[in-house]
Amino acid sequence: MRAHIAAEAKQILLAFGLQDQETLTARPRVETGSPLPGPSTRRVSVHVIGLLLLASLLPLTSGAAIVSDMYGVPWGRREALVLVIAQTGAAALVFFWLALRVIARTPLDRGSPRQRLLQRGAAVTCGIAAMYTAATPLTPSRVALGPAVFGCVLAWLTLEVCRAHGVPLGTGLPATATQRLHEWRIAGSTLYACGFGGLCVTVLTLLVRWTGIDGVPVMQGDQLSTLGISRFTSLALTVVWAVAIEDIVLVAATTALLTAIHRPAWEIYTLVCALEVLFHAYMGLPAIGMAVYGIGRVWLYLRYRRLIPLMAGHGAFNLAFGPFLLLPFGYRIALVIPIATAWWINRRLHAAAARESPLPEPATPDTSVPGPGDRTSAPAA
Q: Cα-atom radius of gyration of the chain, to the nearest Å?
């Protein structure tokens, strides 16, 4: 009687949809996993936008000031003060974001107190240094030092954000000679990509100057004079900023994080190339050629997922191209020294890789004909 009543109750529940078949058969429901849930995808997207906004503040405002000066409307002291305040505010945001990320990564129950204190203290110190150098650009060296410090701190924040999302950027060092040769080749490909992008900008600059069309913005001198770089210290600090912002934040982190949430490749290429063009807006219309520069580096990172050779190739190109413009013409022959050094390193790496994995000796065919009494070479019956 009780079994009959229970069966009737189950039928009534099924009729009203209050009980499913899995409950009747006592089978557990199998959940199918998704690649990345919605909230995590939105969180990654918000973090990418935040990092790119922080990285874009200085180059976009500086480019706008230079382009405005091309049209005869230079920025005054008020605009410069607003720029300093905005950059200081961005440094403050990076300070709090980095401190929170490092504190979340180093809880009290993980690691030794000494390591926890060192990491948290380093994050606070770097954040304060970024705010201080951004708020006091009083000397020419300080003007270049502020962006360099800010770029390094923002790069550290970017690495912490990628670590929190479980997205590696490929920062490991090579362990074998073959791996070192592979990294060297990636750096060389990056150097070629930067050179080809620079060639496109140079051709467009000469073309715009030759046509002489009024109203088309174009830098009058070279790149360093347009940026106001006249000393090697300023050049080195600018290269540090460029490598930290463009390679770590713009190319590597943006590509890796957007790939992790399954964004299409064309979207990544478009975003990075558009920002590369805007970062170099001080060149005027020829900055469009920097899209080629961005395409090459994104393609290299998507293919190899290696960050250090990307940074090395970009930094080497800037450090080699910068002195070429700063040195007098008679001293530019000294650039043969880094070229010869690179050739020597290339030979050493190839030799080390060859010793590590020597090529197998070619097998010699056995042309001997077994005799009638040779039982060892005859096939077994």
A: 30
Question: Chain-wide mean pLDDT for the chain?
Answer: 79
Report yes or no on 5 lying in a domain: no
- Predicted confidence (pLDDT) at residue 269 exceeds the cutoff of 50: yes
* Single pTM value for the model: 0.79
User: What six digits make up the tokens of 83?
Assistant: 């720029």
Query: Is residue 10 domain-resident?
Result: no
The answer to whether residue 13 is domain-embedded is no
The gap from C-alpha 335 to its chain's centroid, in whole angstroms, comes to 28
What 348-351 contacts at long range (C-beta under 8 Å, 24+ apart), as own/partner pairs, is: 349/177, 349/180, 349/181, 349/184, 350/181
Angstrom distance (rounded) from CA 188 to CA 346: 10
Would you call 376 helix, strand, or coil by DSSP?
A: coil
* CA 255/CA 272 separation, integer angstroms: 8
Contact (CB, 8 A) for 239 and 315 = yes
Q: What average pLDDT does the segment 318-325 reach?
A: 73
Residues 197 and 184: their CA atoms lie apart, in Å, by: 20
